[in-house]
Amino acid sequence: MIKEGKFGPQEAISLITITIVARVFFTSPSVITRFVGSAGWLMTLISAATALVIFSLVYLLLRKWPGKNLIDIYELSAGRFIGSIFSLALFAGFLIDGSALLREFTEVMKVYVLPVSPPSYIMGLFLIGVLIVSIYGLETQARLARVLAPVLFIGLVAVLILAGQNYSIHRLSPFFGYGLDKIIIRGIRRNSVYGYSIIAAIIAGSLQGLEHIKKVGYASIIISAILISGCVLCFSLTFPYYTAQEITSPLYEMVSLIDYGRFFQRLDTIFLFTWNIATLLAVTVEVYMAASIYCKVFRIQDIRPIIASMCVLTFTIAITPSDLEEVALGYVNRLREYLWLGVLIPVIITLLLSTIKDRKKRKPAKTKKSR
Amino acid sequence: MNNVMNILKKYLVYHEPKRKDEFELLETEYEGTDRDGFEEDLKQSQEQNKEQNHEQNQGKKQGQNQKQGGTQGQTHQDEENGEENGKSNKENDKEKKQHNENSKNMKTKTPLKIEEWNEAKKEAKKDKKEKSDKNDESDKAEKTDEKKDEKNDDKNDDKHTDKNADKNADGNAESGKKKNEKNKKDDKKDCSNEEKGDEKDLSSGKNSGGKNSGKGSSKKEDVAKDEDIVNIKEVNEKLEVNLKKIQEEFVTHKNSDIVIRQFMVAKKHKAFIVFIDGMVDRETINNYILRQLMMPNLFENADTQNDLIEYIEENVLAVHDTKRENHFEMIIRQILNGLTVLFVDGCDRALIFETRGYEKRSVEKPVTENVIKGSQEGFNENLRTNITLIRRIVKNNRLVTEIVPVGRENNSHCGILYIEGLTNPKVVNEVKKRIASLDIDFVSGEGMLEQLIEDRPFMIFPQVLRTERPDRAASFLMSGKVVIVADGTPFIIAVPMSFFHMIQSSEDANMKWQFATVLRNIRAIGLLISVTLPSFYIALTLYHQEMIPTDLLIAIAQSRENVPFPVLIETVLMELSFELIREAGVRVPGIIGTTLGIIGALILGQAAVAAGIVSPILIIVVAVTGLGNYTAPDFALGFSIRILRFALIVLAGLAGFYGISLGLFLIIGSLCNIKSFGVPLLSPVGPKTKGNMGVFFRIPYGNEERSDYLNTLKRNTTSNGDPRKWVK
After folding, report:
1. pTM for the structure as a whole
2. Residue A140 and residue B673: Cβ atoms within 8 Å?
3. Among partner residues A11, A125, A136, which is closest to B655 by beta-carbon distance?
4. A276–B657: do the CB atoms touch at under 8 Å?
5. Cβ separation of B662 and A126 shorter than 8 Å?
6. What value of ipTM does the predicted structure carry?
7. Radius of gyration, alpha carbons of chain B
8. Extents of the domains making up chain A
């Protein structure tokens, strides 16, 4: 077994929250606007609620197997083969999502910051950082998240407040966007963004007990929902929904509009750091999770060479899409809409199998007692 | 399984020293010897040693054999043989003269001059050649006639006494008489030994002569005896054996600062004391040791010889700290520390007594940690003084000082200080384990020790706290840290540490909390500026011009108009120039250094701008960066920042703000990965722990708790919450 260290709930919450919220910096808010109009902030709350329900199922499963992580539980309840398939589904999810996030980041960087640099150059530099911090291990990543969380939070909130000069409440109308039904359906379908709370179940061994896992899972979903919803709300307040659909990185655009006199304007700098560091951490966590699941499934003791391989894989997958549109509407959109099924289905199957096993165990005991 | 467990125990479990009392007296360090650099190749000296010892032993044995032959009553007289033996006796005399000269040199406290040294070397070589030639001849002579031995024996004895008499006449007026007496006694002893030998030989019959007649076998025996002496580990009852052991260990025939003073205790018992010249207090030795030991009236009540050492310790010596010891390893270590050791004939223990008295620097102002408010004392190079400075502040009976040896060859020491009942015992054991497991010849001071015991040597950041202020060291102790005082440097180290300690100064505690908080934050900002400002400048001018306000952008563009270099090269050049000025300023002696630094920077900057090589804005950037670097109270952190700054400059040149973000991500990630003696370096922020909230804020004195990450045995710093009980 690979050693992943121990850390507290604060570190874990920071880690998962940053991983989830990092998506808001890229194309997702404009894609949401495309589906639900000006009610994106409401839709994401419904997604969060759905994610809470799914996490509750995961928590039920963890309660049946105290002291075990999700990968172990898959194998113990569904058998080595099927369990491995469930775990590899998670592995693929993390790997592809990490790659998509990396490509999104690269494209947005090319559009706004480094227009002349080739994508492979941006990705190469990025993956060097990812590789080093992944090799440092999960404990280091958790501590890093805890250290960076206040800085990122202050940076994000400051930007949202400073952008207040451009907010107009009328831009929120129509309040329910393209309709309540669409908000609910899309909300439920696009809950994958909060699905990273499942990280709490995968790193269960590093957290101290079920109570901590529960706390981490729920808290990270709720905090992320507040932050994402807040960002989407501010974005909707700044841009009319018909314009917002066209913007590659709505938050970046929003920040560049800040203007408090001749000197205090264009606070892209602050935002750039927030955005870069949060994305670096999110991709690092995803790459590490993919490597960790892979090592657990195939009983590999040393994670470091696997991390290097995962970085190469991530680069390969990230470089495959031809352009930003393919990434945003293809990869990212599909992942957001269907990735949660890769979590929910195995969890439900495993939960059922565990319940059946439990009953089988109880029956002989009862029969013995009755005799 | 048992083997595995043993190996694990060996490497993972801290082993207490077998003899706990062995560190009792090792409380101060010694300073350098005054050998004036007269060092020869080690191998050559060892060979010479062996040869000399071998020859001496051979000579002695020959003499003994001759005497033994004489007592057996074989009286063959031959004039020719007598002449040859006369020659060999002369050689013996020469050897003895040489030996006596060596012993004189041994006692002379001033080292030899270079000319003398060279002459001595030449003579030694000549002698060696002659000896080797003559030894061959004498070997031949031995083989041809055993009877010559008888005559040699008689003549040898005569010459031996004559020579002693001559030597006494030529020698020092003071020591002449004593030596004469001593020689006589030696002769007596030789005689008694001869008698004993005769008895043995009588019992063994014919073989006595035959055994020693073979040159090869006698040489082997001599070498074996030398090896035996080298291998002796405990003090022998025979004084000669102890003397020889000390001479062997300290290479006394070359070593001019080892003093072996031979004398008679109460005019009855042969004895000698050993010490290193320059490391002892002469007054103590002359007035309270030698004088006392030579007064017979003080020994009137001494019963037996066995208790002599004990009697001397309890009744004779007027020295405050003494210890009986029978292990040569410890004795040698103590001599090296500046203590004096007494050996008495017939006693199987030596007496070590405190006589240290060497030059040391006085307590002065700290050089790197100056403060306006607070103590103005700094550590010096003396281990004992440094521990005393700490003890003077922490007057706590539970403050424990453990002195442990470090460095196999330089036999240095370091003190491990902690407060029993407060400091986490696991940390103390970890510190002891790491220091005890060091396997290195030379540890020069705290800087080297730090690198040997830190968790991650490849990380650029300091992993232990370093201070040259006793008050800061005391505060570390009281907060539950372990303090390590190394020998020979005016700095101490404290573990485990938090990164945030490096932006805190000892002055903070003496200031009102509001001022201290502001200062702490200014230091943090200074550090941040120092790391990132040049890279920000590069990123803005190279990649993100749109982010610069228009007015500022115009100013920058105008200032860079005539500069021929790209901004990256320009910045690297200026940073390098600044580093050069700084480094030169440190190396240039005295006040000129500071002046050179300021004038150099001014003139160089002015000239560079006038020549159009650099822009004035860059001069400002570099100057502010340099100032920011000096706000770090921790000197080692300043070094880390200087290197990281260059890394960020390169990253900014490669990818602008994106590169800087990547660099910062890696820097903070690396910081999160480091542990200082098991404690994460970024505690109490990452991981978040309770207690000691004052990372960037020095909270007012009140219900303070010791940091949770230190796991101290006592948490609260006050008994009942508020220290200001007078308010109630």
Report:
1. 0.75
2. yes
3. A125
4. yes
5. yes
6. 0.94
7. 35
8. 9-357
